[in-house]
Amino acid sequence: MLQGLWEQLQRTLNNTVEALGISGLEWETLIITMAGQIMVSLIVLTVLLAIYLALKFLFAAVIKSRNPGATLYTSFQVSLRYIFMLAVVVALSAQYGASGELLKSQVRAGIMGLGFYLVWIALTNGFSKLLSRHTIDASLGQLINNMLLVVLLTLGVITLLAQFGFDVLSILAGLGIVGIAVGFAAQSTLSNFIAGITLLIERPFRIGDWVKINDQEGKVIKIAFRTTWLRTRDNIFTMIPNDSVATSDIINFSAEGPTRIRIPLGIAYKESAKEARNVILPLLQAHENTLQTPAMAPRVVMTGLGDSSVDLVALFWIRPEDIDIQPKIVCELLEQIKEGLDEAGIEIPFPHLQLFIDEARGLSPLLAPLKIQGAGTAAEND
After folding, report:
1. Could you write out the DSSP letters of every residue in 89-153?
2. Which of 6-10, 161-165, 345-349, 372-376 has the lowest average pLDDT?
3. What does the alpha-carbon distance between residue 276 and residue 347 come to, in Å, rounded to a whole number?
4. How far are the Cα atoms of 98, 104, 287 from residue 101, in angstroms, in the given order?
5. Helix or strand (DSSP H, E) at 225
6. How far apart are CA 269 and CA 311, in angstroms?
7. Is 356 exposed, middle or buried (0-12, 13-18, 19+ CB in 10 A)?
8. For residue 276, how many other CB atoms are within 10 A of its CB?
9. For the segment 354-372, what is each residue's pLDDT rounded down to a tens digit?
10. Which of 3, 266, 273, 321 has a Cα-to-Cα distance from 130 of 20 to 30 A?
11. Is 219 within 8 Å of 213 (Cβ atoms)?
């Protein structure tokens, strides 16, 4: 049965080869050769995998014992994995008949690629330590890292292509022409990019600040090349083009530390402002989110005499990290103030109108029936 299947397979392959015009192949030799190459490839892959796992285990134990940090350990893992993949590619290329020149190009390109990666890791760590030592804003460090990545990636790709015989000068010239074309086609993007650099240099806000830009209020999450990301109190992310940010009014609630909050209030004219202050002030002082330092103690002041109320304002300070929950704090205090004034019997007025009529003779025809009716009722009572 197996012999019959084998003969049928041979006839099918021969007919296919004759139809394609490539007859004369010895299929048995070809299949045996391919099977041998596959077996050798599997053996090579197994040996390389065993070496990779052994080195990974050995060096991981050495690195962990010295506790170098997560960044160095991750870099080691990536480098070792990269070397393993390079060895696999070179071994398989040699197994399937690649030329010696191609193998040398692969090795040189692989080593240079690893070199560019290690240089990027070293420069990134160096810049991070420099920024932290000089307390430079994290967003500026993010910009430097991104620009460094783009430069090294461009140089790395050009260098790797040169190892395989590509003309580097032609590539650079082509990139220059493409850059000019992209510059004309993406003026808005370039404008946003330049505006982003300006924002990172001038630093009207930093990552983590609470700002208001173009009527959009939120916490700065990220300053990217093209946009600035805000997260509102409703957990909605807003991306504003940097060009628009740079040309608009920016209100930064976190730049100078604590923020003062104002709650306007009103009491009736018959009430005492001092008594109202004695009710409201302890509530402001007792809240857990209000600052109690001598320079930022809560206060209640009179700001004016309105049409129907004595106008007061409750003033208190909150920490920068509490700006995110500012509406919650105001709502809690408003409710407590309302209940406190009600318990103290202090009236909170509402707009109303009092009408005084002196000798309104024009209304006499309307009021006369009422006067007659009132007089008759009085007579009956007598």
Report:
1. HHHHHHHTT--HHHHHHHHHHHHHHHHHHHHHHHHHHHHHHHHHHTT--HHHHHHHHHHHHHHHH
2. 372-376
3. 10
4. 8, 5, 77
5. none
6. 10
7. exposed
8. 25
9. 666 666 666 666 666 666 6
10. 321
11. no
